Amino acid sequence: MEKKAAQLKAQQAGRFFRKGVIIAVVSGILYGIYSACLLAATGSGEWVFWYEGYAEGSFINLPVTFLMGCLILGALGSGINDFISAIWMLAKAAVKGKFVDFLRCLRSKPGMVMVVCALIGGPIASTAYLIALTMAGPIATPISALCPAIGAIIGRVLFRQKLNARMVVGILVCVIATFMIGSVAFGEIAIDTQYLAGLAIALIAALGWGIEGAVAGFGTSVMDYEISISIRQLTSGVVTLFILTPILFIIAGQVNFFDMLGGAFTGDLFIPDTWMIGAPIVFFLISGLAAGLSFGFWYKGNSMCGAALGMACNGGFSFWVPFFSFLICGLYLGWGFDATGALDVSTGYVLAPIQWAAAVVMVLGIFLIAVNPLDWFKKREKAER
C-alpha cells in the first residue's frame, strides 16, 4: 500500500512538473505574440506619421533629435502597453477575488521588491526593447534574449552565485548565436545609424531584464503570481506612461501629452480596401493581454518546474518573437514584401534560414545557463517511475 502511494505521489509530482514546463513554454509563445502586436500597434495609424516626422528631423512640428524622437515614441508605446496590461491583470485578479490581497501585498516588503523590479524591467528595459524593435526590427530580440546570460553574470558579481563551466559555455553559445544573427543581418540589411543604435539599445533591455530576473525571485517566492504580475505591470505602466513620457515631452518642447496620447489609439479599424483589422487600439489590447499572461505564466511556470528551467523554457521567445513578427507584421500587415510583392529580408520582418537557426541555438544556450540537462533528464526519469 505504501509503495503504491509513493508511486502515485511520484506520478502526481511528474505531472505537476511537466505542466510547469508547458506553462513556461507557453509564456515564451505569448511573449512572441505580445512583441509582434506591440510592433504592429506602433507601426499603424498616427504612429506612421510620427515616425516619419522624427526620421526627417521634426516631431509634431518641433525640431527634435533622432534619439529624442525614439525615446518619446518608445516610452509612449511601452507605457500604453503596460498600463493596458495592468488593467487586464487587475480585472483578472478582481474576478478571482484577489483584489484585496493585491492592495495588501502592494504595501508589503515583497510588494516593494516587485515595484523596484518593475521600475527596472518596465520604464528602462521594456521601453528600450520597443525602441530596439522599432529601430532594428525583430533581429533585436535574440540580443535582448541575452538577459539570462547577463542575469547569471550579475548574480555571480553581486550575489556571489555560482557560475560553473556549463553556465560559461551557455553564455558563450548565446554570444555566438548573437553574432550569427548579426553577421547575416549586416549582409542583407542596409547598415545605418538607426540599425546599429537599435542593436545597442537591445543590450540595454537585456541588462534591465537580467537585473530584474536576478532580484525578482524574492518577491515572487512569497506572493501569488497573479498578484505579483499585477503589481509589476501597474507600476511599470503608471511610471512609464504618466511620469517618464510626460517628462520627455517637456524636454522636447512641451508637446501636449494628452493630445498625443489620444492620437496613439486612432486609425482606421480596417486596413484600407480590406476587411482585415489593423487599428492600433486592437493591437494594443492584444499586446497588453499577452504581455500580462506571459509574465504571469513565467512566474507560475518557475514555481512549478523551478526558476532555472522556467527561465530556459521562457527564453524560447528569442525564436517566437521573430516568428510571430513574420506572421503578423510581415505577412498579415504586408511589411515583409518589396515593391514586386516578394518577401524581402531587408525589411527586417523576414529572417534568413541561418538567423532562424541562430535563434534556436540561442534557446539552447539559455537552457545550458539555466539548468544541467543531465539533471533534468534524471528528474524526469525519476518522476516517471
Briefly summarize what is shown:
The protein is built from 17 helices and two strands.
**Largest sheet at a glance?**
2 strands, antiparallel
Helix and strand composition category: mainly alpha
Termini separation comes to 16 Å
Report the total helices: 17
Low-confidence stretches: none
Side by side, the strands of the main sheet go 1-2
Number of domains: 1
Arithmetic mean pLDDT: 76
What's the shape? globular
Percent helix among the residues?
A: over 70%
Indicate the radius of gyration in whole angstroms: 21 Å
Task: Please state roughly what percent of the residues sit in beta strands, choosing from under 5%, 5-15%, 15-25%, 25-35%, 35-45% or over 45%.
Answer: under 5%
Q: Quick one: how many beta strands?
A: 2
N-to-C SSE string, H for helix and E for strand: HHEEHHHHHHHHHHHHHHH
Polypeptide structure, described:
- By secondary structure, the protein is mainly alpha-helical.
- It has one domain.
- The chain has helices at 2-41, 46-55, 66-95, 99-106, 109-136, 140-144, 147-158, 165-188, 193-215, 217-221, 225-252, 257-263, 280-305, 307-314, 317-332, 353-370, 373-384, and strands at residues 58-59, 62-63.
- It has a two-stranded antiparallel sheet.
- Helix 3 (66-95) crosses helix 5, helix 3 (66-95) packs antiparallel against helix 11 (225-252) and helix 5 packs antiparallel against helix 9.
- The relative contact order is 0.19.
